[in-house]
């Protein structure tokens, strides 16, 4: 791991995590009953997922590679850009109905969700969020592949400071461990 975490901060710091340092992985255990969602379809709002990131103000890129022992419905991990509880984008993997899905949730007051089945049983996933002007392009790669497959292109307010980093949550399960083997935030 080459990312310098000086100045990074937690939103909803988990009970258990170990900081990645040069050559080490960032390991985070998602607490039980944590989630990120706003209103749409379910009628509830949660802002309890774990986010570890640094502030960016303009164009930026967040790329992370991670793995986890997915087990419970909606276990999730990936990359995130967050302005506040009503404006954010998360993308990564979500375990739904017994299978891995590459997933993106875009929230501007209301959440919407995009999923694509992960082909095969991917051991590692790389997710890339590229903020360019008023757009975020979400790309991914499986098992060491470069994140070149586009999942989503979404509006994101330009020039507004946002926390950029990695996230995880366990909405229905008792929690699970995510190993982030690579994290890069550049602006």
Automatic annotation (TrEMBL):
Transmembrane stretches, start-end: none
Species assigned in the record: Sphaerisporangium album
InterPro entries named in the record: ConA-like_dom_sf, DUF1349, UCP022704
Identification of the protein by name: DUF1349 domain-containing protein
Species classification: Bacteria, Bacillati, Actinomycetota, Actinomycetes, Streptosporangiales
PANTHER family (alphabetical): REGULATION OF ENOLASE PROTEIN 1
């Amino acid at each position: 791991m080459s990312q310098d975490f000086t100045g990074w901060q937690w939103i909803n710091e988990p009970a258990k995590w170990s900081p990645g340092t040069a050559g080490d992985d960032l390991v985070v255990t998602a607490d039980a009953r944590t989630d990120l969602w706003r209103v749409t379809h379910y009628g509830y709002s949660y802002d309890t997922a774990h986010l570890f990131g640094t502030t960016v103000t303009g164009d930026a890129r967040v790329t992370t590679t991670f793995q986890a022992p997915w087990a419970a419905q909606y276990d999730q991990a990936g990359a995130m850009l967050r302005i506040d509880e009503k404006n954010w984008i998360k993308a990564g993997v979500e375990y739904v109905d017994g299978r891995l899905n590459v997933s993106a949730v875009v929230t501007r007051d209301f959440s919407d969700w995009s999923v694509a089945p992960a082909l095969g049983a991917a051991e590692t996933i790389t997710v890339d969020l590229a903020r360019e002007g008023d757009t975020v392009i979400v790309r991914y790669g499986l098992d060491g592949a470069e994140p070149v497959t586009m999942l989503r292109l979404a509006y994101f307010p330009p020039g507004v400071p946002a926390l950029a980093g990695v996230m995880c949550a366990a909405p229905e399960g008792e929690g699970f461990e995510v190993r982030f083997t690579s994290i890069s935030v550049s602006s």
